[in-house]
Task: inverse folding
């Protein structure tokens, strides 16, 4: 069921999506990071639609223009919601690109939905939260739970203040040679504040405590793993450096001094690298 640019999931949630380009072109599906919306992919979507691709980006449940529902803010629902969009549009031979939390969502989607349905050609994980962020006995290099408790406390105390401050490490604007962009900060906060506070609060558990190890292991499509080594949000050592070892066909590409939000700050580098992977027939 759908109305305009939304699809209604089995549990009644309206998921907003953008779908640009020729319906006969190869589709690229973008999965955004926490606590943003599909708008975070504007630069990539315009680039790839200009290259002749069909580009799709949805807003995660509770985020952006999708329903601000109370429940279902977990990786299983995120993946199922993405699957609802893909099936509604009947996308095949698709390339899925996920950033940060969206990398977790895309991983679970491909492993549990897209790959079994034969709909996926390739996967790209950018600064992704995979395999698992929180420190556990099985993941001793992870971040302590207190880090994520702190995020929850700050969000609950003053969401607008917290999000404004969060952009600084997100884009590495706290580095000595950083070129701080107020419009980029404002656009990040605009996206974040459009979403629901509860969805974003609950999402912290989803992106930090979901173990995607088994999902990564069963993915057999070519996967590009991209990460900046100055990522202050999702440290590279306990994420992409581990994820690429779990993937059957994983390729790692590390970007020196690039931040977590490198798709925005360094789009002129990231976009051509994405295109090279997309068109690679190997």
Result:
């Amino acid at each position: 069921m759908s109305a305009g640019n939304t699809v209604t999931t089995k549990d009644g949630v309206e998921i907003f999506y953008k779908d640009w380009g020729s319906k006969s072109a190869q589709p690229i599906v973008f999965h955004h990071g926490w606590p943003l919306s599909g708008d975070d992919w504007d630069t990539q979507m315009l680039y790839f639609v200009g290259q002749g691709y069909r580009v799709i980006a949805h807003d995660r449940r509770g985020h952006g223009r999708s329903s601000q529902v109370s429940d279902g803010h977990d990786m299983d629902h995120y993946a199922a919601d993405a699957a609802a969009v893909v099936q509604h549009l009947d996308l095949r031979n698709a390339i899925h690109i996920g950033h940060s939390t969206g990398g977790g969502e895309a991983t679970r989607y491909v492993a549990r939905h897209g790959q079994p349905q034969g709909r996926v050609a390739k996967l790209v994980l950018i600064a992704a939260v995979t395999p698992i962020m929180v420190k556990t006995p099985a993941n001793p290099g992870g971040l302590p739970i207190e880090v994520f408790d702190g995020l929850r406390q700050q969000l609950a105390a003053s969401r607008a203040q917290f999000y404004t401050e969060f952009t600084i490490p997100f884009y590495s604007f706290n580095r000595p040679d950083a070129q701080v962009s107020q419009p980029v900060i404002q656009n990040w906060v605009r996206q974040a504040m459009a979403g629901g506070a509860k969805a974003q609060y609950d999402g912290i558990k989803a992106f930090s405590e979901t173990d995607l190890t088994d999902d990564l292991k069963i993915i057999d499509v070519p996967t590009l793993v991209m990460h900046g080594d100055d990522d202050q949000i999702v440290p590279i050592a306990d994420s992409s450096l581990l994820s690429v070892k779990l993937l059957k066909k994983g390729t790692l590409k590390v970007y020196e001094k690039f931040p977590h939000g490198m798709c925005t700050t360094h789009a002129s580098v990231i976009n051509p690298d994405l295109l090279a992977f997309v068109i690679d027939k190997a």
Q: What stands out?
A: The first strand starts at residue 2 and ends at 3. DSSP finds eleven helices and nine strands in the chain. The chain has one domain: 2-279.
